[in-house]
Write a structure and sequence with these properties.
Shape: globular
Largest sheet: 5 strands, antiparallel
Number of strands: 18
Strand order of the largest sheet: 13-14-15-16-17
Number of domains: 1
Number of helices: 13
């Protein structure tokens, strides 16, 4: 059973062409005229309507309209991104992953800058918050990757805007973040002797695969996760670029080269043809998961050419569905085909097979990089496959997750920010080839 507020019901007799407005509020509403509210909202939407050439595409236009719903203002007046409706707040990881799709391809650069400023203000010991609590408590810092996604989102912002004046304001914070990673920080997050980023301690979930039931972390991934080190490499390359731009001498390029060499040596297996998911203290974890896609899709890829195409082939065979990528291969003994049952059963399946819609974005990016025109055609087909879903769960929205087998029923949030954002970003930047003109 669930605790659901049930106010009763409304019974209205309508005639064709009639309009009825209902105002619902948690406090006394400042405006009681539904018609005025509707008029104001129509005007607001017209002001933020995207007028780029790609907006003529019906699916991308629908996604752009959906994107607007996740951009809200915090109590301090700064913009932020709601991770999903109707129970998520603003999460650091989700915000930084969703920001390029929600703010950059749609041209909402002022909002993006607000979001960067809000999170930079709350950096603590080298980490941005992964969650701002609902009731004004202190932010929570328990994500190894959220801060690294901050670097990637900022780099994309610079590609679109060339706003290096703003980046220069953040430069001391960015350098401090890198220094904290080098010397070690919360949750045993630290740069190892091989240059790779390691993280993890018992009963703490630090990556985006963060399901936890009581003290049981379903996918602990302690050690050196593949996507975390792809992000760490990108953060170092971005710091190298900014340092050169600002005339600051630093060895970020050398550190990035060390990461690349160690990554190639430890993560790749020629016989298997894909990357391990985690280099753990007890040895590599060769479970086939989607996290390796980020070594191909981020601005500075770690894997290219023939190896990248082999990885995509493995992903096609084991993980690709019409609704996104499975979180675990269907051939794995721990695979869960459906996201059903009580909290324990659902959390057990959350990252053990369940399909995540947002992963279709990096997949399409990698597909287009590896296969050019053919990749764009396949990406277009994958995007078009989501059109029916926009009327399946949240109206005009993309769900958080889906079952791993047909008919791929939607679950979780009916409207998920990074699901909408990554479909939109990949559609505009990769399929339409309408990304930023500046290649910094």
């Amino acid at each position: 059973s669930e605790d659901l507020f049930t106010p009763g019901y409304l019974r209205l007799q309508l005639v064709p062409g009639a309009t009825v407005g209902v105002v619902a509020a948690t406090e006394l509403p400042t405006c009681r005229d539904p018609t005025a509210l509707l008029t104001d909202e129509i005007e607001r939407r017209q002001q933020v309507e995207v007028r780029a050439p790609w907006a003529a595409d019906p699916l991308l236009r629908s996604l752009a309209r959906a994107a607007d719903q996740f951009l809200v203002r915090r109590g301090d007046g700064l913009h932020t991104i709601v991770a999903g409706y109707h129970w998520f707040t603003d999460w650091g990881r989700d915000t930084m992953i969703a920001l390029p799709g929600l703010c950059l391809v749609t041209g909402r650069f002022a909002e993006a800058r607000d979001i960067f400023a809000a999170f930079a203000e709350h950096v603590s010991e080298g980490m941005i918050p992964n969650r701002f609590p609902d009731a004004g408590e202190e932010p929570e810092y328990h994500a190894v990757d959220a801060t690294l996604w901050f670097f990637v989102a900022l780099y994309k912002y610079l590609q679109y805007t060339e706003d290096y004046e703003f980046a220069s304001e953040l430069w001391p914070t960015l350098e401090d973040i890198a220094a904290w990673h080098e010397r070690g920080m919360r949750h045993q997050i630290r740069v190892d002797d091989d240059g790779l980023l390691a993280a993890g301690e018992p009963r703490v979930q630090l990556t985006w695969m963060d399901a936890k039931v009581g003290d049981w972390v379903v996918t602990p991934r302690m050690g050196k996760p593949v996507e975390v080190n792809a992000l760490w490499y990108n953060a170092l390359k971005i710091l190298q670029h900014l340092g050169e731009t600002f005339g600051q001498r630093a060895d970020y390029g050398q550190r990035a080269a060390a990461v690349r060499a160690s990554f190639e040596r430890l993560f790749w297996c020629e016989e298997r043809g894909y990357l391990c998911d985690v280099v753990a203290p007890e040895g590599p974890d060769w479970a086939i998961r989607p996290n390796q896609i980020f070594a191909l899709s981020l601005p500075f890829p770690l894997v290219e050419g023939g190896r990248a195409r082999r990885i995509l082939s493995v992903i096609d065979e084991h993980l690709l569905t019409p609704r996104g990528l499975r979180s675990l291969s269907s051939s794995d003994p721990a695979y869960c085909a459906q996201y059903v049952g009580g909290p324990w059963e659902r959390d057990s399946a959350y990252h053990q097979g369940t399909v995540w819609g947002w992963l279709i974005g990096p997949y399409i990016t990698a597909l287009c990089r590896c296969h050019g025109r053919v990749g764009r055609q396949r990406g277009r087909a994958l995007l078009d496959g989501f059109a029916a879903h926009l009327n399946e769960a949240g109206l005009g929205m993309v769900s958080e997750i889906f079952d791993a087998e047909p008919p791929f029923a939607p679950h979780g949030c009916i409207a998920q920010a990074w699901s909408v954002a990554e479909l939109l970003r990949a559609g505009v930047e990769d399929v339409w080839e309408n990304g930023p003109m500046v290649r910094v």
